[in-house]
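ok here's Nitrite transporter NAR1:
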Amino acid sequence: MGFSSILSIALVLAPGSEAFLSARGAMPLASSRAVASPAAFRSTSMAPRQQCNTKSLKMSTAAAPVVAGGSTTAPVSAVASAPSVKPPPQMYQNAVDIGQKKASGSVAKLFLMGIISGCHIGFGALLAVSIGGNCPGLLATNPGLQKIIFGAFGLPFGLFMTVVGGGELFTGNTAVVTAAVIEGKASIGGLLKNWVFSYLGNFVGSLLLVFLAVQGGVVVNPGSAMGIATAKTSLTFVQAFARGILCNWLVCMAVWMSVSASDAAGKFFAIFLPISAFVALGLDHSVANMFLIPLGMALGAGVTWSQFLLANLLPVTLGNIVGGAVAVCGLYSGAFGSLFGKKK
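and the structure:
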């Protein structure tokens, strides 16, 4: 008996082989335990296999797209993953949509959400003063490192809470609501309503945090807070105005990028880099100053309310408006919007 005969008998006698072979068309169940000839076995077992291989070949050929030169490539999933951050044109359109919603909010909602954002920024500024402002030795020996610490711990945390948790931050609104107005999605009246009541809400929230911080005795280095208040109110009008422009340029870019990120990690990094940069550079943010300067005043800094409002808050606020509405929104609208005519 040849090797092929032995092999065919072993396959037929193997447990479950009858059902397998009958299902494949190689052997009827009626011929239970019958021994097929090697030639018959080979002829019956090869045909279904060839049919199966032919079908598989057709299916794989149909599934693989043909590229230039007649070659095929692996099939690509029809559903592509969304980018973690929108590209600049979509980023601008996203800002327009957000600005449209903000401009249509009620006065009560704008004011309340403004208070929330003022508290968020106040928390961040308090953290910065408590950590970065409590390094007097480092400030004397390595002022650059102290500025990095002051910028990294605090205000990025405050803006992150506003972006993720919700709020109405005046400085960020100078860019997104302006974009909605330029694209015809909001009115000048809606813009002014948003700016005025978010600004007032931010001021109330900041002063609330000042009161709680002082009453709670949580300021570990009052001298640092007083020094910040004195330094900020000692700037000239032009200096404060220019620092306000530069500051809100970075702040609005942080807002611009963070609201276009699809996950919390992307939002955090989009916020962290620009915000820590503006703090380390010593730039001026109107809402942060609504907390920092009154805090120093409450702790004993020789600064009057008129100095705070006229020498710092007014020029910084005007600079913030230019930084957000012109430097960020204006340039992006010129590139991707309809500021200079037909939308790109």
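+1. Residues 17-50, 52-79 have pLDDT under 50 and may be disordered.
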